[in-house]
Amino acid sequence: MSSLLESIEKEAKNWSYSVMICCLPTYQRKAEKALDEFPHGSHSFYRANDEYAPHWQGELVGMYEPVYGDLRQIEAQIYATADDLLHEISREIAPIQRKIEERQ
Q1: What would you report as the CA-atom Rg of the chain, rounded to the nearest whole angstrom?
Q2: To pair with 31 at 20 to 30 A between CA atoms, which of 13, 38, 54, 91?
Q3: 99 neighbors 15 (Cβ within 8 angstroms)
């Protein structure tokens, strides 16, 4: 009975590791795809900014410039966070893969 229980427990752990090893690369690819699409939106914004903002005057410029600066900072934070996320996912995959190999 103990052997059967240990076998079931081992299979359950193997299954959970297999699910994790499948999910993490999928998650990583989705994060990379989202990051690849992000520059298209920011490029459109900057193109519109370059076309329209130089013609603005007065109070509108004063209100817009801080928002533009905030958007630039947010963009930099998004890239830094995405890099951290992708690195962390990669870092998580290797030990799980080792656990799977050790259990086989």
Answers
A1: 24
A2: 13
A3: no
